[in-house]
Amino acid sequence: xxxxxxxxxxxxxxxxxxxxxxxxxxxxxxxxxxxxxxxxxxxxxxxxxxxxxxxxxxxxxxxxxxxxxxxxxxxxxxxxxxxxxxxxxxxxxxxxxxxxxxxxxxxxxxxxxxxxxxxxxxxxxxxxxxxxxxxxxxxxxxxxxxxxxxxxxxxxxxxxxxxxxxxxxxxxxxxxxxxxxxxxxxxxxxxxxxxxxxxxxxxxxxxxxxxxxxxxxxxxxxxxxxxxxxxxxxxxxxxxxxxxxxxxxxxxxxxxxxxxxxxxxxxxxxxxxxxxxxxxxxxxxxxxx
Length: 289
Known about the structure:
By secondary structure, the protein is of the alpha/beta class. It has helices at residues 2-25, 42-57, 69-78, 94-113, 153-160, 183-193, 227-232, 240-252, 268-274, and strands at 29-34, 61-66, 85-86, 89-90, 120-124, 131-135, 145-150, 164-168, 170-172, 178-180, 198-203, 221-223, 257-262, 281-284. The strands form 4 sheets. The chain has an 8-stranded mixed sheet with strand order 5-8-2-1-11-13-14-12, sandwiched between helices. It has a two-stranded antiparallel ribbon with strand order 3-4. The protein has a two-stranded antiparallel ribbon with strand order 6-7. Helix 3 packs across helix 4 and helix 6 packs parallel to helix 8. The longest helix is centred in the first third of the chain and has 24 residues, at 2-25. The protein starts with a helix and ends in a 5-residue tail after the last strand. The relative contact order is 0.15.
């Protein structure tokens, strides 16, 4: 009986804590960038997809933008092609681009859709001219695109009907040539175009670390004017560069909150959204809080 009472009290506390957050995010748009090992582990992947369905049932407009680096690397290895990265971004020649399109917009995308209990609709940036881009010009990365425009028509229609758009980040230019788009950059641009309330990056790290090899050095909050200093100190480097630059762009252009959370922690997205126990690194702009 005592156990039952304690459990009931804990449940009541949980709901009372969650209520103001449920009210805050009801009818608001949440863009989640999903990647890393949280995407590889099948149990974690199922838990995350269940949580996204829960968010939708609670009235949150959820958009899922996914990468698929490990799956792409695996396929490249099968065909005997080496993965090459420049400044945290994948170098994509014509053959690699074909594999990226096949793996991201095909297998990875539909595997996620299959777990969303009929709520998910799989798309890539080529559908409905959603992500229009040009070849990235500041550095030679092959078929890597720089986003010029995000058309949200298709996303808006799906959100209005309580579906979860699941977006693979393959864009195209005006001639229909496909390009690989960094998923962090794409998620940020989609969040901006949708006037999203929040941008969440779910990955396989606890957040931004002073020492990338020591999880106890987590930096819980970053005001976006501090980002350049962290870059100069080498704290933000490699694959974190496009992730955090995207978050800064999103906040500068009207997205209220941006956060990196550890996708390896079960239900980390629900804890972030509906409790006082959000973890990871929150990015904010002074005066926006």
